[in-house]
Please model this.
Amino acid sequence: MAIAIFKIIMHILIVSCVFSPEPVTSAVTSEQLAIGLVKKGHRVTVITAFPNRPGGKLYPGYTRSWRKVEQTEAGYELIRTYSWLSTQPTVLSRLLENLSFGVASTLNALSIKPDLVYANTWPLFASGFLTALCSLRKLPLVINIQDIYPDAAIELGKFPSSGLLPQLLRSLDTWIAHQSITLVTLSENFARFYSKTRQVPPQKVHIVYNWLDDEEIKPGSRIGNFRNQQNISEDTFLVMYAGNIGVNAGVEFVIEAATKLQDLPDVLFIIAGDGSCRKACEDLAQKYELANLRFFYPLPKEEFSEVQAAADLMILPTRKSGSLTSVPSKLIAYMLSGRTVLATVDEESDTARIIKEARCGVCVAPEDPDAIAKAIRMSIQIPDELNQMGQQARSYALQNFSSQVCLPKLISILESAIQK
Model:
């Protein structure tokens, strides 16, 4: 007797606040998810903003409008919609970006009848609008949690720690979490947080690390084009920060550390990337008249490998308030590049746990330029160990943060969610 096997074909709506060609990790994962779902036979529609991250400036060749629809070569439908361009890291500017994309993306979703909605959007307000729509239309919703709000904002001093406002925002976040059919978090700490403080059943929370394309970001020669172009000698010990220079990045602590290493002529700091705080960081470096620190921007994603390969040590600063409530995506890029990581994080953070498990770097306390400078002085003395830790970083990243590992897991979660 023949047994018929039926494959469920879904129409999945992906709402992503960032998307290709933006060089942001969750933009990469959203695009690869869309491509991966199409390859499995599903119909996919993506709603996103016009590209402007990380600097908040509209990319050349784009003009903002309410709705621009295109059919991509990969086979998914792409809808770009209006969003406020947040060029300044202020609460008002970020709120306007959040609200504008939330309203625009939700209204654009009204004309779409998907089987499942996957949200990788701004927290609380944009996600709240979309959650309300899914709730009214009884659409299963899967939400990807990239940061914990309002708690992260409270710790950064953007919101008061007590009173009616944080209580309302926590209630909103709890409602959103409970309305979704599944939560996807990027770390163990995030999963525990939602189970403990938002009372989300543990079986409803899944952990899928952010990932990057390990074919695009590869280890390379330390002495390559970047050093030649920047006139950096082979003997120079290069300490590099690469990524978005935003409010939470803590780049100013790297600059402070550079002031403490001016006695070492063969040590050079490179701050590679752009963002809302880049100009302020440049002004700070000029104030100190640092000859041992340079800025390099923009940093297109196609140049990640070449630029990071030139480094001897990749530095990952965080603030005290953010080291427990966020997992910097740049950690993945550093590790895929096969470079040792110096991280300024809380020892209980997921970042510290990953670095210890991978044996790929050193962790010091956040916001401590003296500790950073001391760790760099020690690192200079152990070049062979740095090479070994870099190899271990790449190996661990391939096993945990590659698209081959994470993408099938996320697709499986979405397919299981619709079958529920």
Remarks:
- Residues 246 and 276 are 5 Å apart (CA to CA).
- Confidence is low (pLDDT under 50) at residues 1-6.
